[in-house]
């Protein structure tokens, strides 16, 4: 079968042996897969992963338990052991023995077929088409914030980042009743949120007094009012410091970026302002699938390109281009 494989030096489509069914696993023929910022970080060295890339997909079960064969599905990406104390607490996403599809120790979905634990499968309703279903995993990551943080109606919320995840997060927080301001660097992306009644602001220049004395204003600083809830989803190493400055005393800062390499972190501001920092990663699929079924979250406008699997390496490059949103790989 064809698969987009990262060997530590180059990502290219190669022929690989298809996965076989083992106990507790199903084989899914991939209809459509999405390229995520995490995939881009992997080819910059994140997690030291080698193998088939990709973890956002929709497809048909072609081998495995009879009850699942022929069903159109999406799948959660964390392959937990199901036996440890962490799994017993319902935290299989944090199982210390887990592998992670296309990220840690398990081949991914930018391929003709992918093996997925049966326990991770979710059937896709006919009301959701393939190009919507492929957003289930990133949309679940956006909904994860509501699992971790109480968002009361009227909560002031800042979302930094106008990439795919930032655009989804802004919509999820608005749906939860927050007063959302989305801040990004791309007018055309922010316009997608304004069309849904979400306030936006371009991130342009550093506020007076924040720059070093005599320094020119720096693109990418934040000069607005601090918020109760701040979500950092820029995918940039410098985003953390900006997000800390934008969080109110005793506010909550949610970190969504996974960045390959080191970021300079100054903890004094967190301590002095008593800021709660929440790392946020994967989420439950059920709320994401419900939102896709009732179309309360817009995902279709986030698709910027579609390429066939044999051009998956080109799709990876397209996803890394400035201003790109979701690039899909189809069979």
TrEMBL record:
Keyword Oxidoreductase in record: yes
One Pfam match: ADH_N
Recorded GO MF terms: metal ion binding; oxidoreductase activity
Domain of life the protein comes from: Bacteria
Organism: Sorangium cellulosum (Polyangium cellulosum)
All copies of domain Alcohol dehydrogenase-like C-terminal, residue ranges: 165-286
Coiled coil start-end: none
Keywords: Metal-binding, Oxidoreductase, Zinc
This protein's name: Alcohol dehydrogenase
Family: Belongs to the zinc-containing alcohol dehydrogenase family.
